[in-house]
Amino acid sequence: MMGWVIKHHVNGSLEWPAAWVELSRRAGWVIGLCWLAVLLTTGCASQPPVTDAASRPTNVIRDFLTIETPEAVAVIVKSDQPLTYTAIRQEDPRVVYFQFPSTALEGLDAVYFPPPNPVIRSIRSAEAAAGSEARVFLELAQDTSYEVIPDPEGLKIVFRKPSGAAAFGGMPDISGVEGPARKMPPANSKIEPGTPKMVAAAPAPGASVLRDVRTEVRADAVLIRVTADGTLNTANVFTLENPARIVFDFMGLYSRFKGEQRIPVRSPWVSQVRHLGYPDKVRLVVDTEARHLKSYSIEPTADGLVITVGPMAAGDQKK
Q: What is the edge-to-edge ordering of all strands in the sheet holding 245-251?
């Protein structure tokens, strides 16, 4: 059995064995090498300084222009290069919403109003909180189809005018339109003489306030009597499926009712009538079935109008 002998001198000092001294020296070398390895590893793993170059937008939207032809209204989103986008269509409010990733806005107001036209009511734009995405909202006056056309200097969004939908077989070609595009003034800009002014949608002549909505079930149809303080000559109408419903927008009409009003209807053609007031319109929705989406008509009266849904209206549809 091996042991260690520690000598104690008269003067009080201790004499350690030579083996212990050699062991402590080797331990010091080992600890030093370990620290050197840690320092070298940390230095190799260090990353270069992080910059914000990767997060900077690659595209910039600088302007909005409009072009109107007899068949279409087009919105041109101006940039210095083609834009990547995602388009989302919303029903309420009626908006086509575009997301442009890695894109910023430059020198644009939050809202623009185009010259009077039957399709586009306003153009609104905003940037995401992180500044890496631009968002453009096209508010529509009525529901219609559209096509997006890539452009070397941005994007063209072409909306077909609803009045020309039946006679026109495809989307209009705006590439050969002569004359300059029309730049839209911002909402707070001064309108110069001769510049078309965008005014709020005017109420139908004689009507400004919704007073009542009542239903009447007949043998071959359901009558929906919309009562106002005057004649309602027109409405923006469109149909939706899944679930099936007919939507009537009365622009410029004010509702005295608070919140959405629901009227149950027991009939083969209509299950419910709903109406809700918005700041700029009253929306009336007729819940029906898909086979009855085209079976309706509208008839103005001295104190509003009457909507007829059912077989009786199928042959006399008035949109």
A: 236-240, 245-251, 281-287, 272-277, 261-264
Yes or no: say if 200 and 187 are a contact pair by the CB < 8 Å rule: no
Enter the pTM of the model. Answer: 0.41
210 close to 226: Cβ distance less than 8 angstroms: yes
- Give the CA distances from residue 259 to residues 274, 277, 278, in Å, rounded to whole numbers and listed in that order: 10, 7, 10
Q: What is the C-alpha to C-alpha distance for residues 126 and 109, in angstroms, rounded to an integer?
A: 9
Report H helices in the chain. 18-45, 311-314
Q: In terms of DSSP H, where are the helices of 99-236?
A: none
CA–CA gap between residue 303 and residue 233 (Å, rounded): 10
Residues 6+ apart with CB under 8 A from 16: 6
Q: Is the peptide bond before 180 cis (omega within 30 degrees of 0)?
A: no
Nearest residue to 240 via CA among 88, 138, 97, 91: 91
As a whole number of angstroms, the longest Cα–Cα distance in the chain is: 129
Q: What is the pLDDT of residues 2-59, one digit of tens each?
A: 555 444 444 445 555 565 556 566 666 666 666 666 566 555 444 555 444 445 677 8
Give the distance from CA 107 to its chain's centroid: 21
The number of angstroms, rounded, from the C-alpha of 312 to the middle of its chain's C-alpha atoms is 39
Task: Output the CA torsion sign for 253, 256, 257, 259.
Answer: positive
Calpha distance 277→229 (Å, rounded): 15
Cis bond leading into 93, ω under 30°?
A: yes
Q: Which pLDDT does position 42 carry in this prediction?
A: 54
Structure tokens at 216: 């009447």
